[in-house]
Amino acid sequence: MNREDLRLVEFTVVEKTKAKKGKKTTKKEVKKYGYFHLWGTNVNGKGNEKFFGLIEEAVSGSLLEITYKDIRFLSEAEVEEYHEAAEVVAEENAETVAIVEEIIAEAEEATETPAQEAPAEEAKPKTTRSRKKS
């Protein structure tokens, strides 16, 4: 299926982060956007069925199994807002890429044009001065 055929969802995942100073890890709930593929069930170790949705993360494209409680389907208005925001980000990225490419081109031009060589000096005969002995 194409992404255009899939419904856009907002889902919550728990990410572990390490503290800058120390070994302690903290868990943080992060909201992300993705494309809903299908519903499914898994049986856990106790024999209970767990209901999940298969979500393709919008940014990375990775497939995740998300519990049904953490999935929210976006309304048409929210989908339009998401796409408008994505277009703005894409335009900003395109501008940034253009600026970086321009800087790289200027740097390459500067390195490709060799510095003008100094004109070769005519060979002068070496003269030695004799010291007067007194």
From TrEMBL:
Annotated segments matching region Disordered: 106-134
Protein name per Swiss-Prot or TrEMBL: Uncharacterized protein
Source species: Flavobacterium akiainvivens
